[in-house]
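ok so for the tutorial part 2 we go from a plain amino acid sequence to predicted structure tokens. step 1 is just haveing the sequence, like this:
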Amino acid sequence: MPTLPQTVIAATITMLATGLGGLPFVFVRRFPDEVARLGWAVAGGMMLSASVFTLIIPGVNEGGITPVAIGVLAGTAIFGLASKLISGHEHDERGIPVPGASVRGSARIALILGTMFVHSFPEGLAVGVAYGSGEASLGVLVAVAIAVHNIPEGVAVSLPLRAEGVSGWKCVGWAIFSSLPQPIAAIPAFLAVQAFRPVLSFAFGLAAGAMFFLVLSEMIPESRANEGQRLSSALATMVGFLALMVLQNVMAF
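step 2 — the prediction. this is what the tokens look like for a chain of 253 residues:
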């Protein structure tokens, strides 16, 4: 019979696995501008793939289309408002834009980390519900699947952060931080499986909506400095989407 300490340990491992995705960026000193923009596109494609295959589809399978759709709308609205509030700080009291790319970069980093932070809550709930079901093998399977797919998600978080000039070890740290909700959310989910199971579908949708908004409003536009980069941006986005899709489907078998 699974125990609460086992659940916390499993969810902590899934959290730390995200940091593995940031390790390669410890050895990458700086991206050329064109490579950095392609990195934004690849990371955006990976996030879209994660939204579809690890959030929307499982959410619909768990509780139907309605709670997932409501969650998607809520996630989009919440992060749309957050984006507006953050961008509002890029102007002084007279409404004049504050010069310097660092302000915009900081706002974008905050959005990325906020989105991935929210995205980690339903994953933590899933671990807690799986272990709380009483099936130890199910809990281990869910935890391993989430841990493995957290590694490329760590890459997706670290790519844009490194492109913004964040150091390699900080990329690792922020990647792990973005998954902090996993062990936190797993505890109440384990203790109250029946109470949290109906919330899963909405939580999946909420995270998916937040990720879609981030990718479409920030990451894809950032990958296209001009119209000449439309094709390379689209191709890089598809590469990221397909890479994570294949990885997730391989893990499923």
